[in-house]
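Fresh eyes needed here. Have a critical look at this protein's tokenised backbone.
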Amino acid sequence: MKPWLLFTSILLVAQTGLQGQTIVNTYDLMSPIDSIWEANIELQGTISSGNGVFTALNSGLGLGKKLTRNQQAWLIFGYNFASEQQNLIYQTGFVNLRHHSKLSKTIGLQIFIQGQFNSALLVKERNLIGFNLSRSATTKGGLAVKSAGGLFFENEVYTEGLMNLYRGNFNINLNKNINDVVINGTVYLQPDILNIVDYRLLGELAIALPVRENISLEIESAMRFDSDPHLDLLHVDFSTLIGMTINL
């Protein structure tokens, strides 16, 4: 990436809200692989100086490779942080490795492993391994619908204590292109399969406005809900981000 593009992307973006999402929205960083490789980049952040010095950066990168006609592999990772007067407020990061197999024209199998941390939620480690069955379709009106359902094992290590359990994983993604403006909505639901009243929910809505070829300005809002948060944390987190997305 050209240095001026990275510099401009960081300077011309703004952020509000706390990055408290435990659930990672992988749809954000994946797209159809046209040839052999695909790369998607997201950059959002804030830089201020003077009487108050505040810095925040949210970044994500998705790298996809087509293995065969019906198989592809993805490596997705991200890192977010915020600091004030050089004192760290929070930092989060994740790595997700996944393999997608196409079983039919509309049905697929996804196998994934994931590792992450989130100081805002006092999570030192969150490790996942699981699978999804996915389905994709496009309506006559051009609305792309992707849905998936599956199961994963979750190991979470907190600043105090740990938790191991199995969660269901259900999600739906809606994508609509209107005059080159892309509207994207995603919902994730992840219940404890042995105690369904313990569940986590993530909803995201993003609008991408084209700036130039392969570069878009994205406005994204997200809400996270945890029915049984650990260590007396709040049930709800909300964030709004404005930043750049780059598709290579």
Summary: Confidence is low (pLDDT under 50) at residues 1-19. DSSP finds one helix and 13 strands in the chain.
